[in-house]
Design goal:
The chain is built from four helices and 13 strands. The chain is α+β, with helices and mostly antiparallel strands.
């Protein structure tokens, strides 16, 4: 299994926008129960793009304008470093509960993973008055693509996944089974023990999930806090 790198820096009053979710309420998802505007969700699109909605108490230090400006400047800086990255801030505003809701779109999973990792360091450097030019780019911590592509990218797939339906041919699959499902889609998401659960919307029916992941609908799954990674396999 490819080693995930956990960044050990403290950011005051805010958590990273992408690789962890920060909602205490039920998430409104495709096929999932419960509806709420106070929700954080990652949505995978069939064209490879990703939509991200995060609702969070960002603290008194971040007004709508301040957070929007920080995100905009970080996007510009990241795209200078990674010109092919497709990152767009759609909105940043307070909801009815006076919590900041951030909506973003990403052209592909690399843009999503790369910018999120970059933003954490960029925000910290900005707060500390440090130079941001030396921040490195990394896509560790998130992958979305075919099983074959995940393995080629260095993910060892050393895990046992459980079926979400009794209709599945096998109720559990391991590495050898996964490698035989090369064109099937997979999501790999790094999680920390202190992270809030995050719900992932897929564009196809979910087949298998790893330990710590539970189906929230035919096309949605919730990844709980864990020291490791969650995996979702879908058609």
């Amino acid at each position: 299994m490819k080693k995930f790198m956990k960044k050990n820096i403290i950011v005051t009053g805010i958590m990273i926008l992408g690789l962890c979710a920060c909602s205490d309420s039920q998430t409104k998802t495709e096929g999932a129960k419960g509806t709420s505007d106070d929700a954080s969700v990652i949505t995978l699109k069939k064209d490879g793009s990703i939509e991200r909605r995060l609702v969070e108490d960002f603290g008194e230090d971040y007004s709508e304008d301040a957070l929007e400006s920080l995100i905009d400047t970080s996007i510009s800086a990241y795209q200078k470093k990674v010109p092919q990255a497709q990152v767009n801030l759609k909105s940043c505003q307070k909801n009815k509960e006076d919590r900041l809701a951030v909506e973003m779109t990403f052209g592909d999973w690399e843009s999503y993973a790369g910018w999120n990792n970059y933003f954490l360091d960029y925000m910290y450097a900005s707060e500390m008055g440090m130079d941001t030019a030396s921040i490195e780019s990394s896509t560790d911590g998130f992958f979305a693509g075919t099983v074959s592509d995940a393995y080629t990218a260095g993910y060892g797939l050393e895990a046992t996944l459980n079926a979400v339906s009794e209709k599945n041919a096998k109720q559990s699959v391991g590495k050898s089974d996964l490698l035989g499902m090369g064109d099937t889609h997979i999501v790999i998401l790094e999680r920390g023990g202190d992270d809030e659960p995050v719900t992932v919307n897929c564009y196809g029916d979910i087949l298998y999930v790893s330990d710590g992941v539970s189906a929230a609908g035919k096309k949605s799954a919730t990844v709980d806090a864990m020291d490791g990674y969650g995996m979702i396999v879908f058609q």
